[in-house]
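The step that takes the researchers longest sounds almost clerical: writing a folded protein down as plain text. Below is the pair of lines this work produces for a single protein:

——
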Amino acid sequence: MLKINNLHVKLEEEDKQILKGLSLEVPAGQVHAIMGPNGSGKSTLSYVLSGRDGYEITEGEATLDGESLLDMEPEERAAAGLFLAFQYPVEIPGVGNMTFLRTAVNAQRKARGEEELSSAEFLKQIREKARNLDIDAEMLKRPVNVGFSGGEKKRNEILQMAMLAPRMCIMDETDSGLDVDAMRLVADGVNALRGPDRSFLVITHYQRLLNHIQPDVVHIMSNGRIVKSGGPDLALQIEDEGYGDLLAEAG
């Protein structure tokens, strides 16, 4: 599904290298988690994969189902099946949630050569998915994320994910600022979307999210590269012991 090989990336404005030969593969149907100390490059990886400006790829490649992500515009990556859940979802004043979602869904369907959803079919789908995510119908009528709590913003992103049905979902510290109940709702939404044709890359600081979203593989990132990979027990080890010994061992 997602394959990253020897990726080197630097900040354009500061000429500062952030990713330093990162390699990673997420097969179809799997959930991989990335953990690591602050400044290790976790969020930079998510931004580069989604096509955010301000970064220069100096070496390496990233492909989705064999197609080069790095050669695509951000909207082309989205149409190809890539979705990024932000650490801090942005507010879009004046744009209703329903309008935003229907426009996004139909733009992607059009880009893939599929028929656009009618108003009736769209309403049927979004109401069903919102109900499953415990999202109030009134929330759908409000401007995107305006006045939403942290938990509402994250649940709204999961709703976007459910409607867009991406094949590769990248979640950048989606547990940031969530209380236990909100985190469980978000995790339940993610787990409901798991399947053989959809993969997840979950970037997190804390093992607690992984109590609810059981990963197949956990990667530890430091200084712009993956330094160790293992099963879910690796996240528990980090929770108990911290990163010190592991990073010292990795050199």
About this structure: The radius of gyration is 18 Å. The mean pLDDT is 86. Residues 2-250 form a domain with the Rossmann fold fold (CATH 3.40.50.300).
